[in-house]
Each structure stands twice: as structure tokens, then as C-alpha cells.
DNA sequence: ATAATTATTTAGATTAGTCTAAAAATATAT
DNA sequence: ATATATTTTTAGACTAATCTAAATAATTAT
């Protein structure tokens, strides 16, 4: 039986190895898990004993195929629950993340299969992230960070990189949501802040905002 | 912060004190929790330190008002989730109990409020048990065990005492569900088995079945 | 009312996950 | 290439929830 803590470490390893080097550092993992490096070392050892992770002392950790399968399944559950909360229970996109962190650990294959059917097999969660299918396949759509976007082109908003409620509320306050039309007007060379037209309204956003908003060319 | 284990002990104390003496014995609690008496003693002490329970050594345990509030809230969540699973996700009444045991521990007031709205404020779960309202009020309807029913009267099935999947599947196999019409034909003096007409079909049920089926006089 | 039985508590150990502090390995800078 | 800094691991301790075995209290039977 896999514990809740093990699941959370596996998920963290998965996410970290997606957004950086394949091998995840002990310190990075500890940071992501809000624990100390020594705790992470212990858990890494345990995961490798259970054959969820590959571990060579001092060389970081990667997930085994089993570990990856577990991670993707948790992510599938997390994202399906987010869709449920937003579409059926009137939650907003900035409210669902923490709650989905609880719901993703509920163990029942039938539950998740039926939830998927009930929601009509959604392909993306409320933040634009793809929902892995039953076989663990993930369809990535091409997307560009606003920070990489070109001046004078028109885009639509397809996702966020940071799904913290702080960032999402910032977007709410500026009327930006999935599907919003974003036009890049000007990039300020000094601080890389960007003037955009979001749903027709002029707005200046900082680099750190621009690095967290995903767009698709129209 | 209350732990999952504490919640489960509180729930067990609540159920035991409903169906027996107000003061719950250490052994009875240990049995219900599938642990040893010594573990129950430790937990009882912990619950009383946290002011969820009243405890006098050797005298059994009762819940404080706080403890009762917690228990009722868990039961409310459990039963709402059961309704959700049956009404929205095509689960059958014999499949939902264990899964609801997981879901009942999800912590979010908004989730449960919205689920209640989404389900249309149901008053009973799929086994006929009443769902406490937001204020913790429980409306009990009058009901009789089949074992207490009178010969030649007509009843409808309004609930079960044992909601194990084994018992519920027995009922499924005999076409009995909530709302079924039950007519008591004859009680066998020797072993107290009962001849009934269930939805028009003759059937003999044992005492142990009869003690787990709740009826309402028609 | 005393003995026998049963119920409950205490004492001490175990496991999972965490911590701090110290040791060891690796990486970086001069 | 050697010293310094950083990262990682090890050692030992702590808490929550559990266990077994022993001790104590309460109940029941004679």
C-alpha cells in the first residue's frame, strides 16, 4: 500500500523533472515538499526500495515507469476534480487547487472513471492543463509564454504556469481568463514589462506575470 | 488540527453511543475500530485532552458537545457523498460505503455546502439514513424493524440497519430496495424466520435479515 | 464476602515521517 | 590543485498511532 506522503513525493518528483533536469535534486525536492533535505533523502530511499524511483546517492532521483504511472494517475485525478468543482459546484479557478490536493488521494478506480464520464471526458482543467487519459497519455498543445510572445501578434490565453490563488486572483482582477484575447502592444526594454490589450483593454504586466501566462497564436 | 484517526474514533463513539449505552466501553470501541483496547485507551485519553470526549478511567467515554458536532458533520459529509455517488456517478447502494469513508474526511466547508445544493438538499442517503442539515439537526422518521413487524400488515422499506455490501447484495438479489412494499405473511415460531411478500413475491427471511431491515407502516 | 473472571490501564517497544546537528561527498573559486 | 563553499547523507531524537505483555480495577459467581 502506498501512503499519502509517498504519493505527494512522487507527484513532486514528477513535476520537478518536467520543469528542469530529469534528475531531481534532494534540496529541490525538500523545498517543494516543505521539508528538510534529510527527510527527502529518507523518502527517496524508501521510494527506491519500493521501486517507484531510481536513486544513486548524491546523484538525484528519477521516477521508474511505475512511479511515473502513479504520478500521472494522481495528476489525472487532481485535474478531473478541479473540473468537477468549477463546472458543477460553482468554484472559481483560484479556489480549487488546494481542495483538489485532498481529493486526488481518494482511492477508487470506478470513482475516477465515472467522474470522467460524468464530466464528459474533459481534456483540460480550469487552468488549461491537460488531463491525462485513462491510459496515462497526455496531449500537449503548443503554447507560448506571454514573456516569449511577439509584438503586434494576437493570442488567446490557454493556460497558466503558476496556479496559486494569488496569481489567479490577479488575473481575475484584470479580467483575464482562459480564452481571453491578448494582443502584445509593446515590450519595455528596461524592465521587460509588457503592454498588452487584454479583451480589448490596455494593461501593463510585469515579467513575472508574463512568465506565468500561456498563450496560443491566433 | 484534528487527525483522520481522531475523526474516525469520534465517529465510532458517536455510532456506538446511539445504538447502546451512552457511555461507550473501551473494548467496544477497540472492536469497532479494529484495534486493541490499549490503543483505544490511548486515543480516548487524547480525545479527552482535546476536549472532544469526556473520560473517567474505567467508566467509558462520551462525546462532548464539540465532539458530537464533529461526528455529525462527518456523518453529514458521508451521507451526502453517498447520494452523489449513487445519483450522479451510477454507483449502487452496496458500493458506496467504503468510498464514502474516504470522502467524508475531505476538509472544505464550501465543498459540502455546494454538494448539498448540487444534490438538491437530500434528506436521506441511499440506505435510508437521515442526512443531518447544515446546523447538525437530524430528522428521524418513525421506522420499525421487520423483526418487530406485525403479521398481515403492509409496510414499505425505508432503510437498513446493516449497510455492508453483503447484506445489500442479498437485498438486491431478492429485489428489495428503498420503497419496496413488504407484507408480513407469517412468523415461524420455531426460528422466528418470516414469510413476507416483497413487491408481490413470496420470500422467507431469517431473523438476522429481519433485524436489519427498517419498514414504515403503510 | 471472597474468589474467579473480565475489562481496562500501564509500560515499553515499533513504524512512518519528521527534525537538528554533524559528517561526508561534490562543486566552485582562486 | 588546493581550499572553500555547497549539497547530500548519516546519526540520533521526537510524535502519532499502534502493538504485546503485565498490572490493576471492576464485575460476577459461588
UniProtKB/TrEMBL annotation, chains A, B:
The keyword Thylakoid does not apply. One of its GO terms (cellular component) is cytoplasm. It holds the Pfam family Fe_dep_repress. InterPro entries: DtxR_MntR_Metal-Reg (IPR050536), Fe-transptr_FeoA-like (IPR007167), Fe_dep_repressor (IPR001367), Fe_dep_repressor_sf (IPR036421), FeoA_core_dom (IPR038157), HTH_DTXR (IPR022687), Iron_dep_repressor (IPR022689), WH-like_DNA-bd_sf (IPR036388). It comes from the Bacteria. It is found in: Cytoplasm. Residues 1-64 form the HTH dtxR-type domain. Its main location: cytoplasm. Gene3D superfamilies: 2.30.30.90, Iron dependent repressor, metal binding and dimerisation domain, Winged helix-like DNA-binding domain superfamily/Winged helix DNA-binding domain. GO terms for molecular function: DNA binding; DNA-binding transcription factor activity; protein dimerization activity; transition metal ion binding. Keywords: Activator, Cytoplasm, DNA-binding, Manganese, Repressor, Transcription, Transcription regulation. Homodimer. In the presence of manganese, represses expression of mntH and mntS. Up-regulates expression of mntP. Belongs to the DtxR/MntR family. This is Transcriptional regulator MntR. It comes from Bizionia myxarmorum.
Amino acid at each position: 500500500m502506498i501512503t499519502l506522503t509517498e504519493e505527494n513525493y512522487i507527484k513532486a518528483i514528477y513535476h520537478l523533472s518536467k520543469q528542469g533536469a530529469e534528475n531531481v535534486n534532494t534540496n529541490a525536492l525538500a523545498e517543494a515538499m516543505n521539508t528538510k533535505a534529510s527527510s527527502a533523502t529518507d523518502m527517496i530511499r524508501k521510494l527506491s526500495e519500493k521501486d517507484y524511483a531510481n536513486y544513486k546517492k548524491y546523484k538525484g532521483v528519477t521516477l521508474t515507469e511505475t512511479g511515473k504511472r502513479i504520478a500521472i494517475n494522481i495528476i489525472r485525478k487532481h485535474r478531473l476534480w478541479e473540473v468537477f468543482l468549477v463546472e458543477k459546484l460553482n468554484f472559481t479557478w483560484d479556489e480549487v487547487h488546494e481542495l483538489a490536493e485532498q481529493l486526488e488521494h481518494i482511492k477508487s478506480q470506478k470513482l475516477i472513471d465515472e467522474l470522467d464520464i460524468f464530466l464528459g471526458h474533459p481534456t483540460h482543467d480550469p487552468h488549461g492543463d491537460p488531463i491525462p487519459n485513462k491510459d496515462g497519455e497526455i496531449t500537449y498543445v503548443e503554447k507560448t509564454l506571454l514573456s516569449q510572445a511577439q509584438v503586434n501578434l494576437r493570442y488567446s490565453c490557454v493556460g497558466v504556469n503558476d496556479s496559486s490563488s494569488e496569481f489567479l486572483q490577479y488575473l481575475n482582477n484584470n479580467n483575464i481568463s482562459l480564452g481571453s484575447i491578448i494582443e502584445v502592444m509593446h515590450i519595455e526594454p528596461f524592465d521587460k514589462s509588457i503592454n498588452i490589450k487584454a479583451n480589448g483593454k490596455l494593461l501593463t504586466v510585469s515579467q513575472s506575470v508574463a512568465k506565468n501566462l500561456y498563450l496560443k497564436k491566433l
